[in-house]
Specification:
single chain; about 80 residues; 3 helices; mainly alpha
Length: about 80
């Protein structure tokens, strides 16, 4: 479940890619803001996380990473559907 089939090594976490960096930076930048900047940074954070999760789902290095992508995508769809 956690092994990289190419190397045989156990992979749970990796260095963040660009989409995950966008999510982290936008989420932190949104904390002290209100109004339109907060909303736009929230959209950027959500977009970064959705792109990251989709990438993990499609190209995750092992089943754990692909399931993590599915879980994050499902959570984001749920959050968006309930208006959050």
């Amino acid at each position: 479940m956690f092994r990289d089939p190419a190397t045989g090594k156990i992979v749970i976490a990796q260095l963040p890619n660009l989409a995950l960096v966008v999510w982290i930076v936008a989420s932190i930048a949104a904390l002290p803001t209100t109004g339109t900047p907060h909303t736009l940074l929230g959209y950027a954070a959500t977009a970064g996380l959705v792109v990251w999760a989709g990438d993990e789902l499609l190209r995750g290095v092992n089943p754990f990473r692909r399931l993590l992508g599915v879980a994050v995508l499902a959570w984001e769809v749920y959050s968006l559907a309930r208006g959050g």
